[in-house]
Amino acid sequence: MRERILNDLKTAMKNQDKDTLKVIRMVKGSMQLEEINLKHELNDDEVIGIISKEIKTRRDSIKEFIKGNRQDLVDETEKEIKILENYLPEQLSDDEINSIIDEVFNKVQPSGMQEMGKVMGMISPLVKGKADLGSVSSKIREKLSNL
C-alpha cells in the first residue's frame, strides 16, 4: 500500500495532476508523521487507518462547508474523498454490514445500550477500513434501542 501511494505520487507529478498530487502529498505527510510517532514503517492496515481518518476529517469539513454555504469547498473536498477512496479496500454493502451486526448480536446477546462498547469492540476489527465506523455505530445504536 505504501509503495502504491509513493508510485502514484510520482505519476501525479509526471502528469501534473495537481488535485491528486495535493491529496497524495497530504497522505504521505500523515504517514511519515505516524511512522515517527510509532518508530516503525507502517503496515497496510495502519496506512488504511490513516486514509480512513483523512476521509472522516473531510466528511466533517463538508458538513461545516454546507453550513457556511460554500459549495465550491464542498465540491473540492468531495474530489479529495474520491481520490482517497481509491486506496481503501472495497467497501462493505449495507446488507453485509447488517449481517455482521446480526452475527455479533447473536454471539453477545446484548440486553441494552450499556453493552454498546462490547458490541462495537467486536464489530470494529471486522469492518475497519471497509465501512464508515460512524454509520456502523448508528446502526448498532438503533438496533440496541429496539431491544
What this model shows, in words?
- By secondary structure, this protein is mainly alpha-helical.
- It folds into 2 domains: 2-85, Hypothetical Protein Yqey, Chain: A, domain1 (Orthogonal Bundle), CATH 1.10.1510.10; 94-145, Orthogonal Bundle (Arc Repressor Mutant, subunit A), CATH 1.10.10.410.
- Helix content is 78%, strand content 0%.
- It is globular, with a radius of gyration of 18 Å.
- The termini are far apart.
Give the termini separation: 41 Å
Here the CATH topology of the largest domain equals Hypothetical Protein Yqey, Chain: A, domain1
CATH class of the largest domain: Mainly Alpha
So what's the overall shape?
globular
- Domain count: the total is 2
Number of discrete helical segments: 7
Please state roughly what percent of the residues sit in beta strands, choosing from under 5%, 5-15%, 15-25%, 25-35%, 35-45% or over 45%: under 5%
Mean pLDDT: 90
Low-confidence stretches: none
Radius of gyration: 18 Å
Q: Give the number of DSSP strands.
A: 0
CATH H level of the largest domain: which superfamily? Uncharacterised protein YqeY/AIM41, N-terminal domain
Class computed from helices, strands and strand pairing: mainly alpha
The share of residues in helices is over 70%
